[in-house]
Amino acid sequence: MQAAIALRRFLCVNQIALILLDEINSSRQGTEMAKLRAVECREFIKAVVEKAEQMRVPVAIAIVNAEGHLLSLERMDDAGFITPDTAHSKAWTVAAFRTMSPRFQDGLVIQQWFKERNPQMLMNASVFSGGKAVVSGGCAPVFKGDELVGCYGISGGTSDQDEIMGSYARAKVGWAHKPVHDDMPPEVKEHVNLLYDSVGLGERKL
After folding, report:
1. For 130, left (φ over 0), alpha (ψ -120 to 50), or beta?
2. Can you give the three-state secondary structure of the chain, one letter per residue?
3. What is the pLDDT at residue 198?
4. How much is the pLDDT for 18?
5. Torsions phi, psi of 76, nearest 5?
6. Residue 195: which region, alpha, beta or left (left: phi > 0; alpha: psi -120 to 50)?
7. Residue 114 to residue 104: CA distance in whole angstroms
8. Per residue in 42-79, pLDDT tens?
9. Cα–Cα distance list, 157 to 78, 83, 99 (Å)
10. Which residues in the chain come in under a pLDDT of 70?
């Protein structure tokens, strides 16, 4: 008797799950989630390399999707052998933190936030992620509309040099590092602006 009741409950739960799944799939028909394409990544990398050559600073460039999975990676001929791993880690870290909160606008903000609030936590994150958590200038999210579609990381120059290359390439290919509609609470925005001021980037005020 109890086995029969348990079986009926199991079948009922499964039926509800199938109905919900069907509704989700129906709602998604005719819509396609935004994402970064390989050809777009190549154009961004090309723009970074162009700026890097002007600055005479060889770098590596990594691009990940919103879940942190690698989409594209390139190392310039004379860039250090560790730069591809560092660029990948920087991109991965921005993806990890930006998906958690809009307060984490880019690598510089993440770096300053943890420096002020909890340096040990960032060190712990690096340990439990197997050394993948790395933040500095030269890494930021990429949005299409309001949807986070990926992040990039650049490594090989100083933090400022990597940041300059990223900003140049973003502008050249038209990548947005913020959503169209602001998703940040006013008090968080005020704190982020203070962080930008503290690293000499007051012109980026939100």
Report:
1. left
2. CHHHHHHHHHHHHHHHHHHHHHHHHHHHCCCCCCCCCHHHHHHHHHHHHHHHHHHCCCCEEEEEECCCCEEEEEECCCCCCCHHHHHHHHHHHHHHHHCCCCCCCCHHHHHHHHHHHCHHHHHHHHHHCCCCCCCCCCEEEEEECCEEEEEEEEECCCHHHHHHHHHHHHHHHCCECCCCCCCCCHHHHHHHHHHHHHCCCHHHCC
3. 73
4. 31
5. -65, 155
6. alpha
7. 10
8. 999 999 999 999 999 999 999 999 999 999 999 999 99
9. 12, 9, 26
10. 1-32, 183, 199, 201-206
Tokens representing 78 are: 């004379």
142 and 99 Cβ atoms separated by less than 8 Å:
no
- Residue 61: both structure tokens together: 């460039």
> So what's the pLDDT on residue 32?
65
